[in-house]
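Below is a filled-in request sheet from our internal design queue. Each sheet records the structural input a requester submitted and the sequence that came back. We keep these sheets so that new team members can see what a complete request looks like end to end.

REQUESTER: design group, bay 2
PRIORITY: normal
MODE: inverse folding
CHAIN LENGTH: 220
BACKBONE (tokenized):
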């Protein structure tokens, strides 16, 4: 039987993840209690759990607010994804059929079309789907769930601020194709793992270099 604390946790987590409660949103226990007929104690338990997971900040004299992410949060999430997605891709490769790879190539073409239309929202959604489609085949439910949660965190970071490096999106599409070529050719797991990790690190480095160049330009 699901406890009241678990119900409260699921309600808050879903609303944070679907954007209903965006970064900086104040979570008022009394209001939540009236809306869902759940007493204050389960809400407090769920908020402490969400704080421990990094989704909520509990601020003295203010209360609980949805975490607002900064550049450091984005970098940490990207570094973690680089590591765990590399492992997941290596584990997933033997489970990806020729049909799966064809579907992923089609998805990559949709990414290219979205970029050509400068539809960045669709590009972001399809890019996440591309990565999660591969990693979901790793035959490790815990690893797949961890990757899903970190992509959700990444989406929340992007709602707090937007990072952009000219040319990176197009390069990312090419790297997707290269990764699929390796998987299709039956490359060794360590090669696939390195390719996926390098793909994520390339994004991290491209944006860091772009931000550094902007700082120099502003100072000049």
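RETURNED SEQUENCE:
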């Amino acid at each position: 039987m699901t406890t009241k604390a678990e119900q409260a946790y699921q309600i808050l987590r879903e609303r944070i993840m679907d954007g209903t409660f965006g970064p900086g949103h104040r979570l008022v226990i009394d209001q939540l209690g009236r809306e869902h007929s759940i007493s204050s104690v389960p809400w407090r338990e769920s908020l402490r759990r969400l704080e421990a997971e990094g989704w909520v900040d509990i601020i003295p004299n203010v209360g609980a607010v949805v975490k607002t992410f900064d550049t450091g949060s984005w970098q940490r999430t990207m570094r973690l994804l680089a590591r765990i997605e590399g492992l997941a891709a290596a584990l997933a490769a033997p489970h990806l059929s020729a049909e799966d790879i064809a579907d992923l190539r089609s998805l990559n073409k949709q990414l290219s079309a979205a970029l050509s239309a400068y539809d960045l929202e669709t590009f972001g959604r399809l890019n996440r789907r591309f990565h999660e489609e591969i990693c979901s085949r790793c035959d490790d439910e815990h690893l797949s769930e961890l990757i899903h949660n970190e992509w959700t965190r990444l989406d929340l970071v992007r709602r707090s601020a937007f990072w952009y490096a000219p040319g990176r999106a197009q390069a990312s599409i090419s790297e997707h194709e290269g990764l699929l070529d390796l998987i299709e050719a039956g490359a060794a797991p360590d090669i696939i793992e390195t390719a996926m990790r390098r793909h994520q690190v390339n994004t991290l480095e491209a944006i860091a270099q772009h931000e550094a160049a902007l700082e120099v330009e502003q100072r000049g």
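SHEET NOTES:
- Strands lie at 26-27, 56-59, 63-66.
- The chain has two domains: 4-66, 71-219.
FILED BY: M.R.
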